[in-house]
Amino acid sequence: MAKFKYSMQNILEIKMKLETQAKNEFSIANRKYQTEKDRLDELVLKRVGYETRLKESLCGELNISNINNLKKDINSIKSAIRTQLSNVKKAEDELEIKRYALNELMKERKTHEKLREKKFDEFQKEERDSESKEIDQLVSFTYNN
């Protein structure tokens, strides 16, 4: 029985290490997702700034080359935003995969903990039953002699 309990302990330790590793991977994926979102926010702010400058250029003295440059800048920023949206989506998908993996590992660890507790309870019950049986035999032997 002790050998089984020892291997259950090893399994539980392995599950805990895997869970820790999954937590680290989830944390890395979460940081990457936040970084990609921040980059997207910066690009959106940049686009708003270019659009504001374009509106200002259209209100005052018209400088066609400046207006064309701002339009090109806006178009390139829009392209960068589309690319960044794709990056954010990929990072979000990866984050969800890591979240799911972490949740599964946590469930497995908890299941093994419960199994270990159950086996330990069974072991204690067997020990109590064995002790009770020995006491009964001892009492019976003493009484009969």
In words, what does this structure look like?
There is one protein chain. This protein has 145 residues and is mainly alpha-helical. The chain has a single domain (2-140), classed as Helix Hairpins (Orthogonal Bundle), CATH 1.10.287.1700. Helix content is 96%, strand content 0%. The chain has two helices and no strands. The longest helix has 81 residues, at 64-144. The mean pLDDT is 89.
Number of distinct beta strands: 0
Which sheet architecture does the biggest sheet show?
none
Q: What count of structural domains?
A: 1
Distance between the termini: 35 Å
Mean pLDDT: 89
Strand composition percent: under 5%
Low-confidence segments: none
**Helix proportion:** over 70%
The CATH topology comes to Helix Hairpins
Quickly count the helices: 2
Radius of gyration, CA atoms, in whole angstroms: 33 Å
Give the topology string: H per helix, E per strand: HH
Overall geometry comes to rod-shaped
Helix-strand layout with pairing:
Elements (H helix, E strand, L loop, with lengths): L1 H58 L4 H81 L1
Helix pairs in contact: 1-2
Question: Brief overview, please?
Answer:
Helix content is 96%, strand content 0%. It has 145 residues and is mainly alpha-helical.
List keywords for this structure.
mainly alpha, Helix Hairpins, rod-shaped, 0% strand, 96% helix, 145 residues
